[in-house]
Write a structure and sequence with these properties.
Distance between the termini: 74 Å
Number of strands: 31
Radius of gyration: 37 Å
Number of helices: 30
Helix content: 40-55%
Strand content: 15-25%
Low-confidence stretches: none
Length: 992
């Protein structure tokens, strides 16, 4: 599924966040903000990198939106600094994450550089040509580079500057085409060997001459083989590694692609050099494959239970076969329609098929029961099948249309939830239509050929029939009492509805329950200004905790990962934790995450946040609040107050924010008058510091047909202090060296490490998770109430991440329920050609509340989006029984029966098929309700809601609906007689 999100990445070497914000972010936002259909505009300014993300309304085409953004970036280009790298505009696919990570490791013969080269040159290209692979990412890479380490003291001693070194390398390490030599019969291409293949010859380059002797680069520093960046670390199981991440194309199948990659890696591994090994560190297809496999088993279980229900009621092998054939026929027809619509067989479409199992037999059961009843009356099989089908064709079509009226709105629900449940809604609707077509065609044909009334009955049939007769007699007795006290019966129905509303008010809400996917992640950080070594020490403590946890299979750790281009932060890292399969451990993932959270909270030197991973999107903390205010210092103070309050509450864990205003920095104030007097420009001063301290790429070397960076750095960079900047030298106009100490003022301070915007206003995102037993809904309501009461004027807040999805999804699903009820009413009004009878049928809807919400409350379940879908499904299901009763009651009235007698007779006649359809639906939901298989935590509340609601509604419908029908019909008759009487009286008076 495509989400219209476009990102713009711009790199400005050496720029701090404030410069990135004013020089890059603001011009880009000003242009992008006017694009049509823009829903949300966010940006992030961090050291050297600007990231602007434009999220559009779902109706916008992603390709058109991306082109609009490119046009606006081109328009803003004239206002951006000249020395930025070319802006990168790309469509941001939330699902464009690696579905698999392969950890490449080696023994003592393999260092990180060699691992990176082998992964990039020998493995990556062989994986990229697999069908369905969109990209192969390399994580933890340490690319080869030529490093030129310069000593400021030696530079000063030899009277040269870093600019002299850069210029010398630039002039003497070039590969310039030199043309060709032509003779009368031959020509020669001139290949000038002007570019170095190794860094060592750089040491021999002559910078200048002093006293007749050359001063070489080797005299002021040293060129050597190094890496592009030594500010990142990656380990797998505590061993240095390089990871290969497999990103699939948007239309590729996850399971098939992962299988192809595994097979290809097995072939590649046969030609590995000695000492090299690999291991699958993460594979998202494992959970998907397990989920699909368990859903297939669930389909078989649900089908078996439904068949058993039919057999228990019909007690006929042929009758059971006739009815049961509707299941595979309808499901296969639904799958065929899915294929024609281009749908995939995923967890949601499979869930739709499971939910349809208990529904697709309903119409077949009703057709068979009606046909069999006529056969028992003495009719031949073919006329009985024809007459029986004709009798129930109308309610069967009405039932199907009411279900379609429910699931079509689900398919076209707005927002993010609509994208996920689009295939689900259409799959169920298509399968239900196929089941009705099957019931009205295949089922009566099979009844006429296979169904017979036996002359003699077995002992089992007679015994079971006695019990069913007693059940029917008991129902008749209850029905008589209900009609004697009709208003009491109505009050009982109202009381059941009121109880259901009470139970609903007691339910906690959340987007989805925590699913045990056997993996989670840990985001960790050390204080701002911490070095890579300091962060790595904290990371090893995390690895030690995980190594001592028996439920952990392995972990992949990375520090300094790049985010959107540019350098990563050496004080931040992430760990992906893979657990043992659920069957091999006694503790749920949520509880294990909480235990890990508590143990990591005791580690000194940093903070660690245990977060749930997500199958879609980047995952992360479920609760995210965005505070907005133009003053970043005020934002910092307010975020500290909010986070302090949250950390005192039991509802939040892992409280964190993305605004850090305590990053150590050095402010350089240039004495421009003095610098100008000496012929020194600001660019001279800035470049001197950048070439020594910014580690820029100043040139290239070429080795084995590959080009590598030449990077300058300062000697002893791990022991530097800010005051040492005074000992750096630049060359003045007279040729003399001038120290920066004579030109600049140096002041230590602190500043923000990142600056974020939300809809063009400075913002901070406060994130947190919830401990086990605390749903998202109550935690979200609590923080919103606190912010409403405490935020001063000038501050605003909004929701982000899963919290935003939570509110948006519940809003759209509530609208979906309203439209579903409205569509059901309109469909029934058209079918019954009445505005009154559909209202009677809709009375069955609130009767399901006590069962659905009461059982969720008793079992301690929450109300999630899956429960919401179950509730919407319940709306269509509970009307089926009422339609059966009212349709036959109308038929009996048309035959001359009185209203009350027609209602009673219809209820008694339809009693068995109503029970059969209800029990088939309920038992079809039981594998889901009981939480079978992978991902069952998310589906179980749906099954409980439908099964319990269907059972409660059926029991109440059999009693309340006939009574309400009689009251409504009598009231309608009285009103018509009254109106006709008034009309007749008016005519008589007019004639008189």
């Amino acid at each position: 599924m495509d989400f219209p999100i476009v990102s713009v990445n711009v790199v400005l070497q050496g720029a701090e966040p404030e410069v990135i914000e004013t020089e890059v972010i603001e011009p880009l936002e000003e242009e992008i903000n006017t694009i049509e259909g823009l829903k949300k505009l966010t940006s992030e300014a961090r050291e050297q990198v600007a990231v602007v993300t434009a999220e559009f309304e779902l109706w916008r085409d992603i390709d058109v939106a991306a082109q609009d953004v490119r046009d606006r970036v081109d328009r803003a280009r004239r206002d951006l600094p000249d020395d930025i790298e070319e802006p990168i505009v790309r469509k941001l696919d939330p699902d464009a994450r690696a579905i698999m990570w392969i950890a490449l490791m080696g023994d003592e013969r393999w260092d990180a550089v060699r691992l990176t080269e082998y992964a990039d040159q020998s493995i990556k290209e062989r994986l990229e040509n697999i069908r369905g692979v969109g990209e192969i990412q390399i994580g933890g890479e340490r690319k080869y580079a030529a490093r030129v380490r310069l000593d400021p003291a030696k530079l000063a001693a030899h009277h040269v500057t870093v600019q002299d070194v850069v210029d010398t390398i630039g002039r003497n390490n070039v590969d310039i085409p030199s043309g060709r030599i032509e003779s009368q019969s031959r020509e020669f291409v001139i290949k000038t060997q002007g570019q170095f293949a190794y860094p060592e010859p750089i040491n021999d380059l002559i910078l200048t001459y002093r006293d007749g002797r050359p001063v070489r680069i080797g005299d002021v520093g040293r060129a050597f083989a190094g890496v592009e960046s030594d500010r990142k670390v990656a380990r797998f199981k505590g061993i240095i590694t390089v990871g290969l991440g497999v990103v699939k194309q948007s239309d590729a199948n996850t399971v098939a692609l992962a299988s192809a990659v595994r097979e290809r890696m097995e072939r590649i591994a046969k030609s590995f050099p000695p000492g090299l090994t690999y291991e699958i560190a993460m594979d998202r297809s494992e959970y998907v494959e397990e989920n699909i496999r368990d859903l297939v088993i669930t389909i078989c279980l649900a089908t078996s239970l439904v068949v058993l229900v039919v057999l228990a009621f019909l007690r006929s092998g042929w009758g059971t076969l006739v009815t049961s054939l509707a299941i595979p026929t309808s499901l296969l027809a639904g799958v065929a329609i899915m294929y024609l619509l281009g749908f995939s067989l995923n967890t949601l479409s499979m869930l739709g098929l499971i939910l349809a199992i208990g529904i697709v037999v309903d119409d077949a059961i009703v057709v068979l029961e009606s046909s069999y009843r006529h056969m028992e009356g003495g009719a031949e099989s073919r006329p009985a099948a024809r007459t029986g089908t004709t009798e129930v064709a109308f309610p069967a079509i009405a039932n199907t249309l009411s279900l379609i009226a429910v699931f079509i709105p689900v398919a076209f629900t707005g927002g993010l939830i609509g994208r996920f449940f689009f295939e689900f809604g259409l799959t169920v609707a298509a399968t239900v239509v196929a089941s009705t077509f099957t019931a009205l065609t295949l089922t009566p044909m099979l009844c006429s050929r296979l169904l017979r009334v036996p002359q003699t009955r077995g002992a089992v049939f007679r015994a079971s029939e006695r019990h069913l007769r007693r059940l029917e007699a008991g129902y008749s007795w209850l029905l008589e009492r209900a009609f004697r006290h009709r208003f009491v019966t109505v009050l009982i129905g109202l009381a059941a509805f009121g109880a259901g509303l009470y139970f609903f008010s007691q339910l906690d809400t959340e987007l989805t329950p925590v699913i045990d996917r056997s993996n989670f992640m840990i985001s960790f950080e050390t204080p701002e200004g911490a070095t890579l070594a300091e962060t790595d020490r904290f990371a090893r403590e995390i690895e030690k905790v995980l190594a001592e946890t028996p439920e952990v299979r392995h972990q992949f750790l990375a520090i300094g990962l790049s985010r959107g281009g540019g350098p990563g932060k050496v004080n931040e890292g992430i760990t992906f934790v893979r657990l043992l399969p659920r069957g091999e451990r006694d503790i749920h993932q949520a509880d294990l995450m909480q235990q890990t959270r508590e143990r990591l909270g005791q580690l000194p030197g940093g903070r660690a946040y245990v977060l749930e991973t997500s199958m879609v999107g980047p995952g992360g903390a479920p609760l995210q609040i965005v505070l907005q205010h133009p003053d970043i210092e005020a934002l910092g103070r307010r975020q500290d107050m909010v986070m302090g309050w949250m950390r005192q509450q039991d509802d939040y864990v892992g409280v964190n924010s993305d605004l850090k205003v305590n990053k150590p920095q050095v402010n350089i104030t240039i004495n421009r008058d003095k610098a100008s007097e000496m012929g020194i420009t600001v660019a001279d001063i800035s470049n001197t510091m950048r070439y020594l301290l910014g580690e820029p790429d100043i040139s290239k070397i070429e080795r084995a047909s590959e080009r590598y960076d030449v990077i300058t750095e300062v000697a002893d960079k791990g022991q530097m202090v800010p005051s040492m900047l005074r000992d750096l030298y630049v060359r003045g106009a007279s040729g003399a060296l001038v120290s920066l100490g004579n030109l600049v003022e140096i002041e230590e301070s602190i500043g923000p490490s990142e600056i974020h915007h939300f809809n063009r206003l400075r913002a901070v995102t406060i994130s947190a998770a919830t401990p086990p037993g605390v749903p998202l809904g109550p935690a979200l309501a609590k923080i919103e109430k606190h912010l409403d009461e405490t935020l001063p004027a000038g501050f605003d807040y909004t929701l982000a991440g899963q919290a935003s999805d939570f509110e948006e999804s519940f809003y759209y699903l509530t609208i979906t329920i309203v439209f579903a009820v409205l569509f059901i009413y309109l469909v029934l009004a058209a079918q019954f050609e009445s505005f009154i009878h559909p209202l009677t049928i809709l009375v069955s809807l609130p009767l399901a509340a006590i069962g659905a919400f009461g059982m969720l409350y008793v079992l301690g379940m929450t109300f999630s989006i899956f429960t919401f879908i179950g509730l919407i499904m319940l709306l269509g299901l509970v009307t089926k029984n009422a339609i059966l009763l009212l349709d036959f009651a109308n038929v009996l009235q048309a035959r001359g029966r009185e209203t009350i007698e027609a209602a009673k007779q219809a209820a008694r006649t339809r009693f068995r098929p109503v029970l059969m359809t209800a029990f088939s639906t309920v038992l079809g939901m039981m594998p889901i309700a009981l939480g079978f298989g992978a991902g069952a935590e998310s589906r179980s509340s749906l099954g409980v809601c439908v099964a319990a609601g269907m059972m409660a509604s059926t029991l109440l419908t059999l009693v309340v609906i006939p009574v309400v029908y009689s009251l409504v019909d009598q009231a309608q008759g009285w009103a018509l007689r009254h109106l006709r009487g008034d009309a007749g009286k008016a005519v008589s008076e007019a004639v008189a």
